[in-house]
Amino acid sequence: MAAGPVALAVSLGALAIAQGPGRSTTYAGRSNLTATLAVAAGLALVGAGLVTALDRRTARIGDLAVLAGLVWFAPVWVGWDNGPSLLRSLAMLVAAFLFPLLLHLALAYPSGRLRGVPRALASVVYLEAAIATLGRALFRNPFFDPNCWANCTDNLFLVRSLPRLARGIEVADRWFNAVAAAALVMVLGWRLLRDSWPARRALLPIALPAILLAVTVLAHTIALQRTPLENPSDPAFGAIFLIGCVGVLLLAAGLVWAAVRTRVQRRAVARIATSLGQAPPPGSLQAALAQAVGDPEIQITYWLRDTEHYVDAIGQPIAEPVAAAGRAVTTLLRDGRRIAVVSHTAALPDLERELGAAVRLALENERLQAEALAQLDQLRASRIRIVETGDSERRRLERDLHDGAQQQLLALSYDLRLAHTQAEADGDAPTGSLLTQATDQAQAALEELRELAHGIYPAILTEAGLTPALASLADAAPLPVQIHDAAEGRYPALVETCAYLLVAEALDDAAGRDASHATVSVVQDSGRLVVTVDDDGTDRTATMVQLADRVGALDGGVAVEPTRLRAELPCA
Question: CA separation (Å) from 155 to 26, 78, 128, 166, 172?
Fold first, then answer.
């Protein structure tokens, strides 16, 4: 509240100086246009700072903008010809901090905090400005400065006149600011290249004017190197001043735009909970939050306490988000418990405060939904493992029977035939008859064992695939079976086994319902294997629960009708 009237008074005083005693000693006094631009730029920067400072999260940026806007008028007060010496001397000291303040503002945006290289750069620039200002205040006598133009008479802080030292300090300060301006351009350019698009979009309204102002500092240094005596009427110096005014106006506009955009985002975030509805699908909250804050790359991950890992909205495991270039990570708590971690653009430094109680409740609800979906996925995976284990045991039993008991029965049958041949050669008819019966019984036992092994797990299914296995099953079925549209090719072992057992059980059930024939169809449709068994028997009364469980374990579905059984198995 105090900064507004102070800025207005300072700007009006600067305008009066520019239109009166400062016409020849200030850039603002060159014309009505330059005076208007100079006053408008300073007031705009102060106003933008006040608007920005209304939000506590950007109060530091607002304070810097207000200070820079006030300091912007200092060169005009320095050029107050025949004005109060103390006022001109103080303005001379203050004017040296305009560039450090603008540099600090650009580097600290949007959080207001400096870290790493930007902090070191801003600290060095402030320190150099303080040392150079102190040196000029103590040792520069404006009267003996051959390049003096704005204030050639007043310096109340002068201790000893050392023109050569003062001149060296001025030249060193000028070139140091040029180097600092170049460093500012590089740092901002690096941030623009490094950051994600949402962070880049938020930084551009501040970075581009700051780069323009840095270019004016470089241009001013080069112009003074060519023409040591600064002259506002010189077209080069006049153009540099006008570009600087435009840069400050653009910077103020960028700050106001950012403040308005932040308020719009905050309202959009506050409306998220009401816009989602009562039962939003998984992922709706992330999409709504991304749209509200303008960050399409935002990612919400939920922490599951029981399993101690992160999942996304649909319950799939996901790595813990980490901060990266242009990206920040915010941990969200509710009642002291961690419920989610949000990866978002660094342009949203305080996302946690933006989320109200309603949004946090929506996050908690979606976390519970994600936890339920994760448990469902674990249950589905457990069912698949059970089916895989059962099929693996079936294959093992089939191999054990084939390689063990069947081979022993074959050897026994061979030995019985040899013994029968020997008994006939010896003319022992009773023994030969007994051996013939034993051979027939061994052969019958071998056939039963083969059928048993085939029923446990058909070896042809593993060796040749589903189509030949179904053909073999049709040949051995207790009723005529016709196979239509048998899908060729191989499929995952679990799918082939499930389809085979489904057809086998359906044929047995059809035979039990006095069906005279059955038809089998196996087709592939959109990544799913569709198996259909039709018969002409009586209406089915069995629910086929075990079959439905096996198909459901593979994330498939079964439709049980009176004389039709249809199943869809994912096979992609």
Answer: 18, 11, 20, 13, 20
pTM: 0.62
Report the chain's mean pLDDT, rounded to a whole number: 83
Split at pLDDT 50, 70, 90, the class of 162 is very high
Smallest CA-to-CA distance from 470 within 438, 513, 502 is with 502
Q: Which two tokens stand for residue 65?
A: 């903008």
Whether 298 and 308 have beta carbons less than 8 Å apart is answered as no
What is the distance, to the nearest Å, from the Cα of residue 42 to the centroid of all Cα atoms in its chain? 39
Residue 403 burial (10 A CB sphere; 0-12, 13-18, 19+): exposed
| Length of the chain in terms of residues written | 572
**Helix H or strand E segment including 127:** helix 116-139
Q: What is d(CA 120, CA 128) in angstroms, rounded to the nearest whole number?
A: 12
Contacts for 152-161: CB closer than 8 Å, 24+ residues apart: 153/85, 154/85, 154/88, 154/89, 155/89, 155/92, 156/85, 156/86, 156/89, 157/89, 157/93
Q: Which two tokens stand for residue 453?
A: 């092994």
Side-chain half-sphere CA neighbours of 320 within 13 A:
8
23 vs 34: CA distance, rounded Å: 11
Query: What local confidence, expressed as pLDDT, does residue 356 receive?
Result: 61
Q: How far apart are CA 569 and CA 494, in angstroms?
A: 10
Taking the CA atoms of 532, 537, 542 and 543 in sequence, report the sign of the dihedral they define. positive
